[in-house]
Amino acid sequence: MIQRIQSIYLLVAIALQSLSLILNWSTYLLPEYYYALTGSSSSFGSISAMPLMLGVIVSIILLLVVLLQFKDRKKQMQFANIAMIQLVLVIGLFSWLHYNLINAIKASNPELEIGYGIAVIFPVLSAILVWLAKKAIKKDDDLVRSADRLR
């Protein structure tokens, strides 16, 4: 399992998604306050980061399923497609939360500076890694099929 390059791609994607639970996604600076949105919490009281946290956890679980389906390449490719869709949903969840946070904070104070953390790019990088893993799985499948034709 670990000898295959797609396993390395998937392990790195799992590590990136796991890191996105604890690292800052975005920060919101006001003259007297500082708010942060991480993958597991929001320091702004009225907006919860629970949807983002659930989305990231589901993506981690899907990536683990893709990694562990190494004996059935067809299922592995199907789960890889589902994982890529889930990663796009995580980006959408962050965008929705970010929009809601901006509107909630600007309602009380229009002077707002926004900073983005490194965790924002982790779902994109993970989706690229899953795509590379899917290409490697397809290459393995084609190799096995060509060997079956020779028999």
Features:
3 strands; 151 residues; Butyryl-CoA Dehydrogenase, subunit A, domain 3
SSE inventory with pairings:
Blueprint: H1 5-19, E1 24-29, E2 34-38, H2 50-68, H3 73-108, E3 113-116, H4 122-150
Antiparallel strand pairs: 1-2, 1-3
Helix pairs in contact: 1-2, 1-4, 2-3, 3-4
CATH class: Mainly Alpha
Give the % helix.
55-70%
**Strand neighbour order, sheet with most strands:** 2-1-3
Approximate shape: elongated
The number of E-state strands comes to 3
Outline the biggest β-sheet: 3 strands, antiparallel
Here the CATH topology equals Butyryl-CoA Dehydrogenase, subunit A, domain 3
Tally of contiguous helical segments:
4
Mean pLDDT: 86
CATH architecture: Up-down Bundle
Can you tell me the residue ranges where pLDDT is under 50 for at least 5 consecutive residues? none
Structural class: mainly alpha
- Radius of gyration, taken over Cα atoms and rounded to an integer in Å: 19 Å
Task: Give a quick summary of the entry.
The protein is mainly alpha-helical.
